[in-house]
């Protein structure tokens, strides 16, 4: 009886959340998707100024993919001034939403202390999360990088990093 009540409440909340998502997508979905596709295409053809113009507002709205590309552009100074600090902000926001590429870049940034303090525990955590759902073509190299970071850590640090990765949960758009 108690389980049925709990399940009923969870399903009711899920319906409300799903309805809100559908409404939000129906209002802004197509225009947002068009801008995202155009921004990614601009990156693909190395038109970074256009990419920044299209992806910047989407990044502000919390779109993880746009945030990842903005991170890449700030990290490399493409279409925007080169800034590890700005890159770290956008990588972190995207990584929190479970974007594997952003998690990988954020791990690299923690490993090298670029835009964030050097921190091998955080580096390993993010690289471990990234490797867990890396694109097939990248998985082996991402695992090698994660393992290279692990080689600089004590067993205690490694255990902590692994536990942080296990306990980690994605955050909603921000």
Concise summary:
The protein has 8 helices and no strands. The protein is an all-alpha fold and 174 residues long.
3D architecture notes:
It is a single chain. The protein is mostly helical and 174 residues long. It has a single domain (2-167), classed as Serine Threonine Protein Phosphatase 5, Tetratricopeptide repeat (Alpha Horseshoe). It is built from eight helices and no strands. It has helices at 2-44, 48-60, 64-76, 84-96, 100-112, 120-132, 136-150, 155-167. α4 (84-96) crosses α5 (100-112) and α6 (120-132) packs across α8. The chain is elongated. The termini are far apart.
Largest sheet: none
Q: In percent terms, what proportion of residues is strand? A: under 5%
Q: Uncertain regions: pLDDT < 50 for 5+ in a row?
A: 5-27
The CATH class assignment is Mainly Alpha
Number of DSSP helical runs? 8
Give, in order, the helices and strands.
HHHHHHHH
* Radius of gyration, CA atoms, in whole angstroms: 19 Å
- How many E-type strands? 0
User: Given the C-alpha coordinates, what overall shape results?
Assistant: elongated
Task: State the CATH superfamily name.
Answer: Tetratricopeptide repeat domain
The average pLDDT value, as a whole number, equals 87
What's the architecture in CATH terms? Alpha Horseshoe
Please tell me the total number of domains: 1
């Amino acid at each position: 009886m108690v389980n049925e009540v709990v399940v009923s409440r969870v399903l009711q909340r899920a319906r409300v959340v799903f309805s809100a998502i559908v409404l939000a997508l129906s209002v802004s979905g197509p225009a947002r998707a068009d801008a995202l596709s155009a921004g990614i295409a601009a990156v693909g053809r190395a038109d970074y100024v256009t990419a920044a113009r299209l992806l910047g507002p989407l990044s502000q709205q919390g779109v993880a993919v746009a945030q990842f590309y903005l991170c890449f552009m700030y990290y490399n100074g493409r279409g925007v001034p080169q800034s590890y600090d700005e890159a770290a902000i956008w990588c972190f926001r995207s990584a929190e939403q479970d974007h594997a590429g952003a998690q990988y870049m954020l791990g690299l940034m923690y490993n090298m202390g670029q835009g964030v303090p050097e921190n091998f525990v955080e580096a390993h955590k993010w690289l471990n999360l990234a490797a867990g759902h890396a694109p097939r073509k990248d998985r082996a190299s991402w695992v090698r990088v994660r393992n290279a970071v692990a080689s600089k850590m004590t067993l205690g640090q490694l255990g902590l990093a692994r536990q942080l990765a296990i306990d980690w949960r994605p955050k909603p758009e921000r």
